[in-house]
Design a protein that fits this description.
Blueprint: E1 26-27, H1 30-34, E2 36-37, E3 53-56, E4 60-63, H2 74-100, H3 104-132, E5 141-144, E6 149-153, E7 161-165, E8 170-175, E9 183-191, E10 194-205, H4 208-224, H5 246-256, H6 262-267, H7 269-285, H8 293-297, H9 317-321, H10 323-337
Antiparallel strand pairs: 1-10, 2-8, 3-4, 4-5, 5-6, 6-7, 8-9, 9-10
């Protein structure tokens, strides 16, 4: 499983739509029109899920949300460590002021400092904690080729799922506002030329090629069927695991910081260790997303469906266990790098 944003360079720039909301009730801009992804037009490119696929069968595919890869990474780790630190300061200072300070000036000083610690706690909560902890492990986007609907999971409460017809969504290559070379697949819900809602899916990359490969996978699935996305049997497996195991958190942290060689693993070890622990704690507090019963009723998978791909327990499991799958993945990556 390969994606951009190594060494944290990409991850810190792609929180729009998660920590900060997308800009809505605005006019569609020309650059979005220029980079529109047409479901009616086949691209002269290999279809590749690029680690974004969660589940596939003859009825639907589930795709990962863009925020998944940055959960618990650089920004979150530092903010969470700060949150823990100021929590300790607040508790200590309140305890000191109430039980140990003998002079009035000491009590006042401790209470003032505890108030500042509380302000930092509140700031860190609104900056990070409320978005990451006690939410959902991931926020899948489901494409049902039978009903030709897209279901964007946002929660289990009222209006928790955005549903839009496949033919009505406007897809284009999205770019980070701060780092324009970082791109993803962006879906817009339009009322005329006015953007009423936005969602981003899949991992983000530092060049358009992988984004186009992901799009071609989704487009072919919806327009041509599940058999069209992978002719080679060695491609018919899911690479990404969304379970919140410690091993999966470690794998994603290594990918995020580019720790794929012994040297980079040693250099990035402190960040990898902190991010792994933070990501694991986040997932331990989060619920597994479940689509509403009415949506699941439309997504029944037939028994013995030949297009159900195996799902790994850990990310990259099948490639690690089968040398032929690994070799095939390397060949596809090398071919994509030349395009």
């Amino acid at each position: 499983m390969q994606r951009a944003g190594k060494n944290g360079q990409g991850g810190i720039k792609m929180y729009t739509g998660w920590w900060t909301t997308f800009s809505l009730n605005r006019n569609l801009v020309q650059t979005e029109r220029d980079e529109q992804l047409l479901y009616t037009k086949s691209l002269d490119i290999d279809a590749n899920d690029r680690g974004g696929l969660i589940r596939i069968n003859s009825t639907y595919i589930d795709w990962i949300d863009r925020r998944f890869s940055v959960r618990g990474m650089l920004n979150t780790t530092f903010l969470f460590v700060g949150y823990i630190f100021f929590t300790g300061c607040f508790v200590f200072l309140i305890g000191y002021a109430l039980f140990f300070a003998n002079r009035e000036v000491d009590k006042i000083g401790a209470l003032c400092c505890s108030f500042l610690s509380l302000m930092f706690l509140i700031a860190f909560y609104f900056l990070c904690i409320r978005f990451e902890f006690f939410t959902y492990t991931h926020f899948p986007i489901r494409f049902n080729r039978i009903t030709r609907k897209i279901h964007v999971f946002r929660g289990n409460g009222p209006n928790g799922v955005l549903t839009v017809p496949w033919d009505d969504a406007f897809f284009h290559i999205g770019h980070s506002q701060k780092t324009p070379n970082l791109c993803d697949i962006r879906g817009e819900i339009l009322d005329g030329d006015i953007v009423k809602d936005t969602f981003a899916l899949g991992h983000f990359f530092e060049r358009p090629q992988p984004v186009l490969e992901m799009w071609e996978f989704i487009r072919r699935y919806m327009e041509e069927g599940p058999e069209a996305v992978a002719e080679n049997p060695l491609d018919r497996y899911v690479g990404l695991s969304v379970t919140g195991s410690f091993k999966n958190c470690l794998i994603m942290s290594r990918i995020f910081y580019g720790a794929d060689t012994p040297f980079t693993q040693v250099i990035s070890l402190p960040l990898v260790a902190l991010s792994t622990a933070t990501r694991w704690l986040i997932f331990k507090t989060c619920k597994v997303p479940v689509f509403p019963p009415e949506i699941e009723a439309e997504c029944v998978v037939e028994a013995n469906d030949p297009n159900v791909w195996p799902i790994p327990e850990t990310s990259g499991q099948f490639a690690a266990e089968n040398p032929a799958i690994m070799q095939r993945a390397v060949e596809r990556a090398e071919k994509a790098a030349t395009q």
